[in-house]
C-alpha cells in the first residue's frame, strides 16, 4: 500500500517537470513577438489553471489517499478485523418450529445446508487432548468395523445413531437415566449444524451408563470370534477398556440438577471467580457432592473429622432431593468458588463435576481417578492440579492445603493454570472439533453399508425442541446451546497422535511428578509421626 503511494507521488512530480520544461522552451522560441507574448500569457494562464487544477486534484487524491491509509490502519485493529471477516453469506438456521396450536407432527426441515465451506481456515492447533483420538480408535485400524463387529456392541447400547447424507436417525433400545440420551443426541445434532457436509456416513452405538462396558480382558486377538472388540461410544474410558470416549451430555445441559449448558455456565463461573479474591478465600479444601455413589467418596468423608488435628478440609453432602425442593439455592456452581482449594474425586466413574471444580481458580486437589473423560488425559500434575493418592487421601489433603497456605503464589498459579485449561482448551468450539475428529476417524473405519434400521426415526433439532413448550429448563438448555449457523472458522488443526515412545515419556514424567509430591508428603508426616 505504502509503496503504491510513493509511485503515484513520483509520477506527479515528473508531470510537473515536463510541463515546466515545455513552457520554458516555448518562451525562448516565441518571446520576441507581441503575439508570442500574448500566446505566452495565454499559455501561462493555461499553465496556472492546470497547475491549480492539478493542485486541487492532488489534494483530492491526497484526501482519498489519506482515507485509504486510515482504513488500512483500522484494518489492523483486531476488533475491526473480526467484523470485516464476517462473511457476506452467513447462513442462519434458526429453529423452524410449526405453529404451537397446529397438531400436525413436527418434521425435519428439508432445507438444512448440506455443505458449507468455512471462510476462515484454521491456523491454530487443537489442544493436546486431541492426540488421544487416534489411540481410542487404533484397535480397529487394521480390520475396520464390519457389521458383525458393530452388532456385538448392541446389547450394551442405549441407542444407535445413524448419520446418512448429513441427516441423523436414532433407534432407541433403552431409556437412559434422566436426559443423558436426549442431550447426547442433541449435541451430535448441533455438531451437524456446525459442520454441514463434514461428518461422514456412519452407524454408532452409544452407552449412557456411568461405567465403560467393553473390558479388554473379554477380548482376545487369538480368539477369532471376539476380535476385534465391538466399538461402543461412551462418556469415559479406562485403561482396561476399549470404549470410545465422547463428550458427556452436560456440555449441553443437565436440567434435572439445574446445570446449564457449558457455554453459559463457563461465563457464569468466570464471573463467580471474581467475587472472592484468592487471598480472601477460605484457606481450606472444599468438596460438596453425593458421597453415596462410590466407596471412595464415602471414604473421603472420614477426612472431615479428627480430634487429633485440623484436617484442613471442609466436606459437605449435597442432598439433591432437598436441593430440588428449595429450587437449587444451595447448589449454584458459580457460588462455590469460595475456598482456596477444591477437591475432585470421581464418583461411580468419571464425574461431570470435574470441569466445574477446575474452573474456580482454586488449586484443585485431584484424587487420582481411574476413569477418564476426553479432556483430562492431557492435564499435568503440579501444572493444572495437585495430585492426591486415593489410598492416603486425608494425609495428602492436609499436607497439600498447608503447603498451599505456606506457598500462596505457587498455589495460585496452579489454580489459575487449571482454570485456564478449562476456559481455553474446553471452549465449546473445541468440544465440537473433538467430536468432529472422532466421528471422521470412526467413519473411515466403517466396513459396512450404512443403513437406516426399520425402527429408526429421523431426528433433528426441530423434532427434539419444538414439542417442548412447558417453559422448563430442558427447552432452555436446548435454546441456549442451539448452533445457529455453520462455523465460519474451520476446525482446529489436528495434532499428530502420540507415538508409543512419546506417550511413554509423557506418562513417565507425570509419574515422576506424582512421586516427588508423595515424597514431600511422606517426609512431612514422618517428622510428625503417625497420627
Ligand atoms: C481498536 O478499536 C477499539 C474499539 O473500537 C478502540 O478502542 C482502539 O483504540 C482501537 N485501536 C487502534 C490501534 O486503533
Ligand atoms: C387437531 O386439533 C383439532 C382442533 O384443534 C381437533 O379437533 C383434532 O381432534 C386434533 N387432531 C388430533 C389428531 O389430535
Ligand atoms: C464437615 O465439617 C464441616 C465443618 O465442621 C461441617 O459443617 C460438615 O457438615 C461436615 N461434613 C460432614 C460430611 O460431616
Ligand atoms: C508451613 O509452615 C509452617 C510454619 O512455618 C510449618 O510449621 C509447616 O510445617 C509448613 N507446612 C508445610 C506443608 O510446608
Ligand atoms: C421394530 O419394532 C418392532 C416392534 O417394537 C419389533 O417387533 C421389531 O423386531 C423391530 N425391528 C427390528 C429390526 O429391531
TrEMBL record:
Residue span(s) of domain Glycosyl transferase CAP10: 198-449
Domain of life: Eukaryota
Regions crossing the membrane: 39-57
Keyword field: Membrane, Transmembrane, Transmembrane helix
InterPro entries: CAP10, O-Glucosyltr/Glycosyltrsf_90
Protein name: Glycosyl transferase CAP10 domain-containing protein
Amino acid at each position: 500500500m505504502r509503496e503504491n503511494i510513493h509511485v503515484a507521488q513520483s509520477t506527479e512530480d515528473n508531470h510537473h517537470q515536463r510541463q515546466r520544461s515545455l513552457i520554458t522552451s516555448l518562451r525562448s522560441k516565441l518571446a520576441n513577438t507581441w503575439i508570442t507574448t500574448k500566446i505566452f500569457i495565454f499559455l501561462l494562464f493555461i499553465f496556472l489553471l492546470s497547475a491549480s487544477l492539478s493542485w486541487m486534484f492532488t489534494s483530492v487524491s491526497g484526501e482519498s489517499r489519506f482515507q485509504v491509509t486510515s482504513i488500512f490502519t483500522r484494518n489492523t485493529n483486531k476488533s475491526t478485523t473480526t467484523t470485516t471477516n464476517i462473511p457476506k453469506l452467513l447462513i442462519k438456521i434458526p429453529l423452524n418450529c410449526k405453529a404451537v396450536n397446529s397438531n400436525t407432527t413436527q418434521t425435519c426441515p428439508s432445507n438444512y445446508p448440506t455443505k458449507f465451506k468455512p471462510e476462515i481456515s484454521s491456523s491454530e492447533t487443537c489442544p493436546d487432548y486431541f492426540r488421544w483420538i487416534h489411540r481410542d480408535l487404533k484397535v480397529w485400524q487394521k480390520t475396520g468395523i464390519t457389521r458383525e463387529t458393530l452388532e456385538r456392541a448392541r446389547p450394551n447400547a442405549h441407542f444407535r445413531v445413524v448419520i446418512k447424507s448429513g441427516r441423523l436417525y436414532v433407534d432407541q433400545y433403552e431409556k437412559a437415566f434422566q436426559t443423558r440420551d436426549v442431550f447426547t443426541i442433541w449435541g451430535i445434532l448441533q455438531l451437524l449444524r456446525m459442520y454441514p457436509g463434514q461428518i461422514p456416513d456412519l452407524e454408532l452405538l452409544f452407552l449412557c451408563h456411568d461405567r465403560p462396558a467393553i473390558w479388554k480382558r473379554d477380548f482376545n486377538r487369538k480368539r477369532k470370534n471376539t476380535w476385534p472388540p465391538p466399538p461402543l461410544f461412551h462418556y469415559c474410558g479406562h485403561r482396561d477398556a476399549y470404549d470410545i470416549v465422547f463428550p458427556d451430555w452436560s456440555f449441553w445441559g443437565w436440567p434435572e440438577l439445574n446445570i446449564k449448558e457449558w457455554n453459559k455456565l463457563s461465563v457464569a463461573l468466570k464471573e463467580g471467580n471474581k467475587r472472592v479474591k484468592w487471598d480472601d478465600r477460605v484457606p481450606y479444601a472444599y468438596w460438596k457432592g453425593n458421597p453415596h455413589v462410590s466407596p471412595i467418596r464415602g471414604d473421603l468423608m472420614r477426612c472431615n473429622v479428627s480430634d487429633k488435628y485440623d484436617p484442613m478440609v471442609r466436606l459437605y453432602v449435597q442432598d439433591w432431593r432437598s436441593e430440588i425442593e428449595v429450587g437449587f439455592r444451595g447448589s449454584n456452581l458459580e457460588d462455590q468458588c469460595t475456598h482456596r482449594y477444591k477437591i475432585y474425586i470421581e464418583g461411580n466413574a468419571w464425574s461431570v463435576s470435574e470441569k466445574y471444580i477446575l474452573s474456580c481458580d482454586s488449586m484443585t486437589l485431584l484424587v487420582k481417578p481411574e476413569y477418564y473423560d476426553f479432556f483430562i488425559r492431557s492435564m499435568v500434575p503440579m501444572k493444572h492440579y495437585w495430585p492426591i493418592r486415593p489410598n492416603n487421601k486425608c494425609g495428602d489433603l492436609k499436607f497439600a492445603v498447608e503447603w498451599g497456605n505456606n506457598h500462596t503464589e505457587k498455589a495460585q498459579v496452579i489454580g489459575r493454570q487449571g482454570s485456564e485449561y478449562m476456559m481455553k482448551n474446553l471452549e465449546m468450539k473445541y468440544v465440537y472439533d473433538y467430536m468432529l475428529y472422532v466421528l471422521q476417524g470412526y467413519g473411515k473405519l466403517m466396513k459396512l453399508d450404512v443403513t437406516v434400521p426399520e425402527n429408526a426415526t429421523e431426528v433433528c433439532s426441530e423434532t427434539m425442541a419444538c414439542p417442548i413448550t412447558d417453559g422448563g429448563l430442558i427447552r432452555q438448555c436446548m435454546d441456549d446451546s442451539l448452533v445457529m449457523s455453520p462455523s465460519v472458522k474451520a476446525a482446529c488443526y489436528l495434532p499428530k497422535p502420540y507415538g508409543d515412545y512419546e506417550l511413554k515419556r509423557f506418562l513417565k514424567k507425570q509419574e515422576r511428578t506424582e512421586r516427588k509430591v508423595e515424597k514431600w508428603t511422606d517426609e512431612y508426616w514422618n517428622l510428625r509421626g503417625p497420627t
